[in-house]
Each structure stands twice: as C-alpha cells, then as structure tokens.
Design brief:
By secondary structure, the protein is mainly alpha-helical. The chain has 9 helices and no strands.
C-alpha cells in the first residue's frame, strides 16, 4: 500500500531584502521627522523626496520578480482592506482643530481618508465587486493626489498655520511613508483589476 502525497503549494513570501528596506525606510522617516530635517528643507525638497519614494516603491513592486510575485499572491480584498489604516486621516482634523495645520488641507486630506477607509472596509466585506472597486480605487488615488497637491499649494502660498506640522512627527510619517505605499497599493489594485480574469 502506497501513501499518496499532495503536491506542495508554493506561496510567495515577502523577500527579506524588501522587508529590511521597509524597516530602514521607516526608521529614516522617523529620524527625518523628529530632527526637523523636512521642515528645514527649502521648497520643493520635501515634495521631491515624496515623489522619489513613490517612484522607488512602484519600481520595486512592478519590476522585482520576487516582490511582484508576493504582491500578486495577496488577496484583492486584503489589498483593499489595508486602506482601513487611512483612518489616520483623523489626525489631520485633530491637529487642525488645535490651530497647527491649515484647515483646508486638513479637511480635504482628513475627510477624504476617512471616506476611503470606511468604504475600503465595506468593499472588503462585500467581496470587492469589480466595478465598485475600480471606482473606489480611482477615488482613493485621487484623494492622495489632491492632498499632496493641496499641501504643495499651501506651502507655496506661505499661509498660516501652513503645513509645518505635516513635516514633523508624528504626521510626517504620513507623507514620507504611508502616502508612497498607498499610492503604490492603488496601482497594484488597478493592475489586478484590469488584468485578464485568469490574472485576478
């Protein structure tokens, strides 16, 4: 009598180099915010850093075979549901209420993030229906673009209270760590949704 063995199923893992890079990135983001480095940078230094981080994150996720395979193995509802973290947008409203952040930026970024986070939970629970998820994903990306654009315009105008709090801990982690990750996340979701059915 011979025992039959089921073939092993290969599940991609997060590459160690990518995990290490993320940890180093987070630590550097903390240091940059805590030391005042971002605040002291002349315009558009902080904006260039943020755009560079977005480009690097996208390149790593789309070009690296092992990292791309790991991202592709993540269920779509998880990619969507992780946006619940964007409830951190509440922090914008709290800091603005204390008079430390421009209220226009706080309103757009804060309420936008809250709306995207709430709908992400609902979509993940509903099984991420394709058309609704496409619409949500477009709005989620637009929310981030509007927030970055609003912050840039306020920095250019030099209004008070301005955006200094955005480049100081703890809020500085949002543009220097979470925004690049979430923008990349939206691109990965679009790639999943617009791929042939077999690719989903």
């Amino acid at each position: 009598m011979t025992a039959s063995t089921a073939p092993a199923v290969f599940t991609p893992r997060l590459p160690g180099t990518a995990a290490a890079a993320a940890v180093v990135w987070f630590i550097l983001a903390v240091i940059a915010g805590a030391s005042g480095f971002l605040v002291r940078l002349p315009f558009p230094g902080a904006q260039v850093i943020i755009l560079s981080l977005v480009a690097i994150t996208l390149s790593a996720g789309l070009a690296s075979g092992s990292l791309r395979a790991w991202i592709d193995s993540i269920p779509l509802r998880v990619l969507v549901g992780v946006n619940a973290i964007r409830f951190i947008g509440i922090a914008f409203l709290v800091v603005a209420a204390q008079g430390q952040l421009d209220p226009v930026l706080a309103g757009r970024a804060g309420w936008g993030d809250i709306a995207i986070a709430t709908s992400a939970i609902i979509l993940a629970w509903a099984g991420t229906p394709r058309l609704l998820t496409l619409l949500w994903n477009a709005l989620g990306m637009l929310d981030l673009v509007v927030a970055v654009g609003t912050a840039t315009a306020i920095a250019l105008n030099g209004t008070t209270p301005g955006v200094t709090a955005l480049f100081t801990l703890p809020l500085s982690l949002i543009p220097t760590f979470f925004v690049p990750l979430f923008l990349a996340n939206h691109v990965f979701i679009f790639r999943r949704l617009l791929a042939p059915p077999r690719g989903r």
